[in-house]
């Protein structure tokens, strides 16, 4: 564990020094603020405060942005060191491969958390200042930040796995873009197509919600929606959420980082530098 | 329990279907400096990676101070300097060495180590701005972390200027004096000749030689070169009488086996005034290397 912290400290230095932390925070802040202002129009019609609307639109934003930022940090984790030629030396030190990945995960996760807290926090503060906020909408904001970090963790470890499996950093970057596209865009499109074909049959009733929640990006959305009725109202996802038990989405989103980390470790163990 | 720093027995390694290491046996004693020579692709780096436990081997055994390669005990006992070492360019030399010290669990004097390898002034600059030689020095500093029982140095002098090479060998000697077994994989034959205790040569994954320089010389039985300088116009006469070969107007070169050397010298001395000078050139490591790596075999 001491060794994992040593790796984490060095990784944190790297993230700060190559401006990653700064850029990620800036991106989160810019998008979150823009959405908060743009999404402030429908407040009156739905009868909820502005922070709720803001959280609903930021949930949609986070589904795209959290996996993207995480993969952009994760794809380089193993492949970058191997391309540079510094992996062999690192592995000659008495740190296990799991410890190395854990150290990187801690640093990357901390960086994501900083970006999420500042980005969503600032946007939430602005929304609350201009349109008011209640206890429930503050809870929703907190939940959004936490689940966004979890979603980031999923794609960080998936990024590590791709990084270990691919032949180089460039290939890892390409694979990461593919994974992002599949989980965030194509998966939902495929499900949508299936539901349309099925036209309200057994698949739509029984199978569809479970297939949907198996995808971490959708689990993230469902968790945020199901937990807050007013967010569900303003994001129009109440239907799918009500078909599942309450624990399904949290379980999926908590299980994915663990399984992904194990997968990444298994892939990393096979790497011969 | 055998606790020699490095003991390799009948090591086989395949890469796909090609066998890249054939039944390698190798030992290094504490305080011994071993030069591992061979062409590119002879298997030097593969051997080192197998000792580090970075790659699996198919046959034979490797023991580092009695521990299996890649085990925590083996990794703690081993220091490694990779060929053309590189680090993350965003870190400073000081930060990088601090990371390594923490990984090794050593409370090391980081500043002192960096001063020792001549990076005192550059230690708080980013590695991205370092020259190749400076990166190599930083690599050497991490070898000195802790007191390794086995140091594996892959082409340690590549990219170093002559002064830095002197420093490097001074540090290697220091390591050996502290009781570390040092393995130096190299191409720089003339360098390792005087600075190592034993020489092993790999050819296409087979160990073809493993002895001291003197031992290799006598085993190879390579001829000694006698260069006789003739006085006046006697060169032709000397050449015919000794069976040598004229190499320019006034010199004759004679090749003779080490055992016949004295007899040959007496014959030349008997020529009297015709001989102005004699130079004797024993076979150098370069000749031995050619001999054992099979280049002079037709």
Tell me what you see in this structure.
Chain A: Pfam families: ABC2_membrane_2. Chain A: One of its GO terms (cellular component) is plasma membrane. The complex is a heterodimer of chains A (273) and B (298). With 273 residues, chain A is mainly alpha-helical. Chain A has one domain. In chain A, 85% of the residues lie in helices and 0% in strands. The longest helix of chain A has 35 residues. Chain A starts with a helix and ends with a helix. The mean pLDDT of chain A is 87. By secondary structure, chain B is an alpha/beta fold. Chain B folds into two domains: 213 residues, Rossmann fold, CATH 3.40.50; 60 residues, Alpha-Beta Plaits (2-Layer Sandwich), CATH 3.30.70. Chain B contains eleven helices and 13 strands. Chain B has a six-stranded mixed beta sheet, with helices on both faces. Chain B has a four-stranded antiparallel beta sheet with strand order 11-12-10-13, covered by helices on one side. In chain B, helix 8 crosses helix 11. The longest helix of chain B is centred in the middle third of the chain and has 16 residues. The radius of gyration of chain B is 24 Å and the shape is elongated. The interface between A and B is medium-sized, with 24 and 30 residues.
Number of strands of chain B: 13
Q: How would the global form of chain B be characterised? A: elongated
Helix content of chain B: 25-40%
Overall pLDDT of chain A, averaged?
Answer: 87
Q: What is the beta-strand fraction of chain B?
A: 25-35%
Mean pLDDT rating of chain B: 87
Question: Can you tell me the number of structural domains of chain A?
Answer: 1
- Number of spatially distinct domains of chain B: 2
Q: What's the quaternary structure here?
A: heterodimer
SSE order of chain A: HHHHHHHHHHHHHH
Say how many strands of chain A there are: 0
Arrangement of strands in the largest sheet of chain B: 5-6-7-3-8-9
Structural class of chain A: mainly alpha
Q: In terms of per-residue confidence, which ranges of chain B show pLDDT below 50 for 5 or more consecutive residues?
A: none
Euclidean distance between termini CA atoms of chain B: 45 Å
């Amino acid at each position: 564990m001491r060794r994992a912290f040593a790796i984490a400290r060095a990784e944190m230095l790297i993230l700060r020094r190559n401006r990653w932390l700064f850029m990620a925070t800036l991106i989160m802040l810019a998008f979150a603020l823009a959405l908060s202002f743009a999404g402030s129009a429908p407040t009156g019609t739905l009868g909820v405060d502005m922070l709720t609307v803001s959280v609903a639109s930021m949930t949609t934003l986070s589904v795209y942005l959290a996996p993207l930022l995480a993969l952009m940090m994760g794809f380089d984790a193993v492949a970058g060191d191997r391309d540079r030629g510094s992996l062999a030396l690192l592995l000659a030190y008495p740190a296990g491969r799991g410890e190395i990945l854990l150290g990187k995960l801690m640093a990357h996760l901390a960086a994501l958390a900083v970006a999420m807290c500042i980005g969503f926090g600032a946007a939430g503060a602005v929304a609350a200042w201009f349109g008011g906020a209640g206890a429930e909408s503050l809870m929703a904001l907190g939940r959004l930040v936490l689940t966004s970090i979890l979603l980031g963790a999923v794609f960080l470890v998936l990024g590590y796995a791709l990084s270990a499996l691919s032949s180089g950093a460039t290939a890892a970057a390409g694979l990461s873009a593919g994974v992002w596209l599949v989980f965030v865009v194509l998966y939902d499109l495929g499900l949508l197509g299936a539901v349309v074909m099925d036209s309200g049959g057994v698949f739509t009733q029984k199978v569809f919600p479970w297939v949907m929640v198996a995808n971490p990006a959708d689990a993230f959305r469902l968790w945020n929606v199901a937990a807050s009725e007013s967010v569900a109202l303003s994001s129009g996802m109440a239907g799918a959420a009500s078909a599942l038990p309450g624990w399904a989405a949290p379980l999926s989103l908590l299980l994915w980082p663990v399984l992904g980390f194990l997968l990444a470790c298994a892939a990393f163990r096979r790497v011969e530098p | 329990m055998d606790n020699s720093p490095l003991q390799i027995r009948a090591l086989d390694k395949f890469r796909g279907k090609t066998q890249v290491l054939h039944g390698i046996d190798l030992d290094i004693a504490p305080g011994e400096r071993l030069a591992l020579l061979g062409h590119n692709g002879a298997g030097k780096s593969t051997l080192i990676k197998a000792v580090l436990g970075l790659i699996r081997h198919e046959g034979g055994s490797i023991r580092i101070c009695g521990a299996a390669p890649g085990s925590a005990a083996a990794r703690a006992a081993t220091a490694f300097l990779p060929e053309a070492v590189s680090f993350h360019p965003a870190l400073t030399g000081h930060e990088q060495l601090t990371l390594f010290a923490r990984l090794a669990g050593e409370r090391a004097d980081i500043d002192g180590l960096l001063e020792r390898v001549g990076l005192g002034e550059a230690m708080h600059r980013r590695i991205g701005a370092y020259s190749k030689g400076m990166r190599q020095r930083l690599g050497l500093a991490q070898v000195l972390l802790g007191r390794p029982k086995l140091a594996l140095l892959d082409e340690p002098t590549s990219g170093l200027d002559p002064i830095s090479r002197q420093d490097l060998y001074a540090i290697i000697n220091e390591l050996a004096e502290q009781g570390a077994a040092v393995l130096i994989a190299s191409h720089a034959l003339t360098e390792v000749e005087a600075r190592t205790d034993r020489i092993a040569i790999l050819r296409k994954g087979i160990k073809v030689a493993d002895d001291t320089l003197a031992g290799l010389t006598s085993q190879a039985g390579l001829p000694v070169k006698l260069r006789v300088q003739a006085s006046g116009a006697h060169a032709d006469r000397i050449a015919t009488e000794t069976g040598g070969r004229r190499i320019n107007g006034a010199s004759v070169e004679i090749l003779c086996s080490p055992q016949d050397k004295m007899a040959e010298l007496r014959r030349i001395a008997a020529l009297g005034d015709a001989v102005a000078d004699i130079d004797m050139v024993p076979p150098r490591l370069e000749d031995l290397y050619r001999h054992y790596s099979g280049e002079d075999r037709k």
